Each structure stands twice: as C-alpha cells, then as structure tokens.
Amino acid sequence: MKKISELFQREKAHVAYLTAGDGGVERTIEAALALIEGGVNLLELGVPFSDPIADGPVIQQASLRALQAGITMYEVLYVAHEIRKKSTIPIILFSYYNPILAALDQFQGNFLAEAKRAGVDGFLIVDLPWEESHLLQARMVFDDLTLISVITPSTSLERIIAIDQKSQGFLYYVCRAGTTGAKTSLPIDFSKKIKKIKSVVHLPVVVGFGISDEVTVQRVLQYANGVVIGSFFVQAVAQGLNTQALKIIAQQLLGRRS
C-alpha cells in the first residue's frame, strides 16, 4: 500500500498496462523496464485470460498469444519479481476474477502472500463487483496489498461515494462505455463527469480506456490524478518495437522528453 500512496503524494500517476507474457516473459520484463525509463511510474501487469470481455481486440489477442505460449500465474509473478529487482514503482496485477480464484487454489491459499513477495503492490479485478469484494479485500489488507476499485460513467454518485469510502489506493475510472482500445479523443462529457467525481471522493482518481496520444494524456491530467495507457503500449510491444523505441514513445505520450 505504501508505494501507491507515496506515489500520489509526490506526483500524478503515469500508468502503463502490459499483458504479462505476450511475446515471452523476458519480452514483457524488457518492455516494462523500457517504459519505466520513459516515465511510467505505475505498472499494470495484465493476467492473461481466455474471455477478457472488457478488452478490445488488441488486448484480447495479446491474452490469447500469452495463453497459447503457456503463460500461467506462476510466470506472471516471475515477471513482477524480475521487474521489482530493477524498479521501485508500484506494480498492480490487472485481472479478471477467475484467474485469481484459480490461483488461490493452485497456491494452496498462499497466492496473495506469494504475490506480495514477488513485488506486487495491489490488484485491480475488473469483473469483481464491489459488494462481493469485501472478503478478498480483507485478505489483501492482511498481506499489505491494495484492491483497486473500478467506477464507470454509468456508476451513480451515491455508489461512487460508497465505493470510495470502503476502498484503498485509488479509483480506476473507466471513462467510456464499451471495450478497451486506442482512441483519439475523450467522451464529450469527460470534464463534467470527472469534476463531479472528484468533488465527492477522497481517493485519487486514475483514468483509463482508450487513451493513446499526448494531447489526450495532458487533458486527462488536467482533471485526474493519473492516466492509464494500455492498448497503445500492448500494440507497440506486439509490433516488435525495441526497448529504445518503447522508451521514446513513453516519453512522447507522457510529455517527459529528455
């Protein structure tokens, strides 16, 4: 929890999402470290899943490639562990609930402790309803892990307030309906919605879904505490960009040119 809270005390979150194991575990590790060098200060490692219903084609295909290569939760934790050896930024596992349930069984109840030892700081479980999350959240607190909550444009203010009061770390605001995928603009009512959300919550708000250019990144950061770039980076890795190129595109998107 400490790494996440300290990040928001210092600066805004520049978050990258990568599908763990797409192109091989070493490729994910190298790509993550290159993006970190380019200015990323919080990493979401996507756990490959066979039915990623909230994700668009780019991340769906990345998950499929990783699964076909035999990537399991053991490899995901290995990736986190190797990144942690070289970086102190917060690492969050982005997952659907089924892989987490399977891992709790596979690791004989020690999965969360193993994740913490690997260098993981928190989890974002995209399809776990807030009302059903309390038991898992309590277990994560025991292992000094943060369970990140998701809100959307259709989440009522009353529900956002309730989620905020019981959550930790930050709120992940899915800023548009539909699935993930690189877009070139924000929803027309984005600024109105994010201002309203920020007025009723105490946790930082990080915005994701479809952000893929510097102008959009900077607009998001005018209002929010952080921004997530996912499909754009996943596609860049899939296209075979080398580590120097990945570092440069991160610098460009995040406005951190050297």
Layout: helices, strands, pairs:
Blueprint: H1 2-10, E1 13-19, H2 25-37, E2 42-46, H3 57-68, H4 73-86, E3 91-95, H5 97-106, H6 111-118, E4 122-125, H7 134-142, E5 146-151, H8 157-166, E6 171-174, H9 190-198, E7 205-208, H10 214-223, E8 226-229, H11 231-238, H12 243-254
Parallel strand pairs: 1-2, 1-8, 2-3, 3-4, 4-5, 5-6, 6-7, 7-8
Helix pairs in contact: 2-4, 2-12, 4-6
Key attributes of the depicted protein:
TIM Barrel, 258 residues, alpha/beta
Brief summary:
The protein is α/β, with parallel strands linked by helices. It has twelve helices and eight strands.
Structural class: alpha/beta
Q: What is the CATH class name?
A: Alpha Beta
Oligomer: single chain
Number of E-state strands:
8
CATH topology: TIM Barrel
Helix content: 40-55%
The rounded Rg comes to 17 Å
Query: What value does the average pLDDT take?
Result: 92
Helix and strand run: HEHEHHEHHEHEHEHEHEHH
| C-alpha geometry | globular
- Structurally, the number of domains stands at 1
Largest sheet: 8 strands, parallel, barrel
**Based on the structure given, which CATH architecture is correct?**
Alpha-Beta Barrel
Tell me the distance between the termini.
30 Å
Question: Count of helical segments?
Answer: 12
CATH superfamily: Aldolase class I
Strand content: 15-25%
Which parts are unreliable, with pLDDT below 50 for 5 consecutive residues or more?
A: 178-182
